[in-house]
Amino acid sequence: MARDKDSGLVYRHAAMTRVTHWAWAIALFFLLLSGLQIFMARPDLYIGRQSGFSFDNTILSIGAVVESGQLRGVTQIFGHSFDTTGWLGVVDEGGRMTAKSFPGWMTIPSYRDLATGRIVHFFFAWILVAALALWLVSSLLNKHLWRDIVPKSGDARALPQDIADHARLRLHHRRAYGPLQKLSYALILLVALPLMIATGLTMSPGVNAMVPFLADLFGGRQSARTLHFAIMLVLVAFFVVHVVMVVLAGPLNELRSMITGWYRTDGERP
């Protein structure tokens, strides 16, 4: 670990960590918007191996109804209905309320085009897979995974205090990640992203033919699709919190560390 004692700068992020970080950011952006385009083809989520006809296994449904001659967006979650007109189910398209699951700014393309959405989605899915594989290999070789990501016993003991510090916005600037950072990064990189990839593959008929037990592992393709969608929501929530923390911790310092690798720590700051 390189260090400039006079300025308090430390070399925090290796080149491969920085490259894969930005590759993930770009890939996940396009995966989210193209994924919502694909989801519009069947804006429902189920638990099990198939969608119900003689039975109801729906846990989420986004649709539209006509009431008193007007379109109204309705989203059902576990049997409870919510009016989501203007947001989900019925949205403003060029000044006209239209039956559509999501507004145009939330999908790629902005108009209904399942084929293009699938092409974009699959392209960036493989970029995500390649970036994750490169990061795992490089992090094992340079010990970044064990040193900075995997929580240790000491991190578990320090976690309550670290959570309290974050709640009070007492953010520290150290070379090493804090316990809460380690836990969140480990869950995203080692659990959420691999699960996202695995559930995505489970929805492929070709993969089902080659690896039939994969669908059984997740309780069926419909359950895998639901888990895929749920992980997407987790990643979106992580992204929002991550950006807020970057802004609160000092965006110039945080961005510099993820662009150049150099990070200014506490205690030695001029």
Can you walk me through this structure?
The protein has helices at residues 15-39, 114-141, 144-149, 153-167, 179-202, 205-210, 213-217, 221-249, 251-259; strands spanning 3-4, 9-11, 44-46, 58-67, 70-77, 80-83, 90-93, 96-99, 262-264. The chain is of the alpha+beta class and 270 residues long. The strands form 3 sheets. Strands 3-4-5-6 form a 4-stranded antiparallel beta sheet. The mean pLDDT is 91.
Notable characteristics:
Di-haem_cyt_TM, Hydrogenase_cytochrome, Thiosulfate reductase cytochrome b subunit, single chain, 270 residues, alpha+beta, 4-stranded antiparallel β-sheet, 3-stranded antiparallel β-sheet
SSE layout and pairings?
Layout: E1 3-4, E2 9-11, H1 15-39, E3 44-46, E4 58-67, E5 70-77, E6 80-83, E7 90-93, E8 96-99, H2 114-141, H3 144-149, H4 153-167, H5 179-202, H6 205-210, H7 213-217, H8 221-249, H9 251-259, E9 262-264
Antiparallel strand pairs: 1-2, 2-9, 3-4, 4-5, 5-6, 7-8
Helix pairs in contact: 1-2, 5-8, 8-9
